[in-house]
Amino acid sequence: MSEPLMRFLKQVRVTHGMSQAALERCMDLPHGTYRHVEKGRRPMPVLENRLAEWVHTFEDCVGATTEERMTIANMLSRSILDQLAVLLQDIEQRKRRE
Predict the structure, then answer these.
(1) Is the separation of the CB atoms in 64 and 56 below 8 Å?
(2) Cα radius of gyration rounded to whole Å, the chain
(3) How far apart are alpha carbons 36 and 42 in whole angstroms?
(4) Residue 80's pLDDT is what?
(5) Are 5 and 73 spatial neighbours (Cβ–Cβ below 8 Å)?
(6) Quick one: which of 34, 54, 30 has its CA closest to 42?
(7) Percent of the chain with pLDDT over 90
(8) What is the tally of structural domains in the chain?
(9) Counting beta carbons within 10 angstroms of the beta carbon of residue 37, is it exposed (0 to 12), middle (13 to 18) or buried (19 or more)?
C-alpha cells in the first residue's frame, strides 16, 4: 500500500494517543504485526484479504473522526486505482508482445 497512506494512518494513531501495541490488541493482531506494517516491513492486507475490514477496524480502534475516515478512504482509493493502472499496463504490454 502507499507510503502516504501509511504515514497518514500513523499520524491518526498518534493524534488519538494510541500506541502500536494498544492498536494491535484492539485490532486483534499478533504482536508486532501493525508495527511492521507501519514501518513498511510488512504489506497492508490486500483487497482479497479483507483490506476494507482491516482499515475500518483501524479507524474504530483509534476513534478516527469523520474527516480522517474520509481522507483514509480517498487515499486508499487512489492507491488502489494506481495499482490497478499498473496491472492494466502490464496486461497491455503482454498482449503487444504476443
Answers:
(1) no
(2) 15
(3) 5
(4) 83
(5) no
(6) 34
(7) 50
(8) 1
(9) buried
| Residue 56 neighbours by CB under 8 Å, 6+ apart | none
Q: How many helices (H) and strands (E) does the chain have?
A: 5, 0
Compute CA distances 38 → 18, 81, 87, 98, whole Å: 13, 21, 25, 40
Phi, psi of 17 (to 5 degrees): 70, 30
Residue 10 identity: K
Specify the pLDDT at position 51.
82
The 10s digit of each residue's pLDDT in 21-60 is 999 999 999 999 899 988 888 887 765 568 888 899 999 9
Cα–Cα distance for residue pair 91/32, rounded to 1 Å? 36
Q: Which domain holds residue 60?
A: 3-97
Give the CATH number of the domain where residue 32 resides: 1.10.260
Contact 46, 9 (CB under 8 A): no
